[in-house]
Design brief:
The chain is built from 10 helices and 3 strands, in the order αβααββααααααα. The chain is mostly helical and about 230 residues long. The radius of gyration is 19 Å and the shape is globular. Helix content is about 70%, strand content about 5%. The protein has a 3-stranded antiparallel β-sheet with strand order 1-3-2.
Length: about 230
């Protein structure tokens, strides 16, 4: 006899969710490019929905990092310069190292299992080059670490600097399968170190993991012109 929970549950898809998916798909397909303005009334007209619903959808997309609100200019598709990405990586490396240091004494066996699940899904996304799946679980992994750190101000700071970076990576799709597999493996190593709560190198390992891709990402996203 089939278990009652075997099929899981179907989540209702609201109109707002449909707008989120439509705009995100347009971004990932290149129909909306980095820096393009997002005009609420135009999207509302194209999708035959109300402007308030579009506004709600854009708030969700901003939370996911795919759009940015620019003061006095409105909303644009997330755009990051080489300097932006470099500055984010440098700040992120320090904050992530601090987060893992604070998290190590709070992580339970259940937390470790959840982090391991995120890593497994990252591997699946890497193997299939399914970047949305990879980055969704990569971000979930880091958000779990931020949560375990137990400091909401640290979590808020990381949310603001890291989430747009992840969305930008999904949009640009610059790395190869082996890069993603290596990244998933490094996350697995961090979990192993986290289980050893007395690992004095844990903070260094997290910082190294973040910095590992910095030069490569910068060179691939922003190749320097040869004279």
């Amino acid at each position: 006899m089939m278990n009652a929970d075997a099929l899981g549950q179907i989540k209702p898809i609201t109109k707002k969710d449909q707008i989120v998916v439509a705009v995100k798909n347009a971004i990932l397909a290149g129909k909306l490019e980095s820096g393009d303005p997002i005009v609420e009334s135009r999207i509302a007209q194209q999708l035959a929905v109300g402007t308030p619903l579009v506004r709600e959808a854009l708030i969700e997309l901003e939370h996911q990092g795919f759009v940015q609100k620019i003061p006095f200019k409105g909303t644009i598709v997330t755009k990051l310069s080489r300097e932006d990405v470099d500055n984010i990586f440098r700040l992120r490396a320090e904050l992530e190292a601090l987060a893992i240091e604070w998290a190590k004494d709070n992580a339970t066996d259940e937390d470790i299992a959840e982090l391991s699940l995120f890593t497994q899904r990252m591997k699946e996304g890497a193997a299939a080059l399914n970047l949305p799946l990879f980055y969704e679980n990569d971000l979930a992994f880091h958000r779990k670490i931020w949560e375990l750190a137990g400091n909401p101000y640290l979590a808020d700071a990381l949310e603001k600097v890291v989430v747009p970076l992840f969305a930008f990576f999904v949009m640009k799709n610059v790395r190869e399968r082996v890069n993603y597999l290596d990244s998933a493996a490094k996350h697995a190593e961090i979990i192993q170190s986290l289980q050893r709560k007395k690992d004095k190198q844990l903070r260094r390992k997290m910082k190294d993991s973040v910095e590992y891709w910095q030069d490569e990402i910068l060179s691939q996203l922003f190749p320097r012109q040869k004279n």
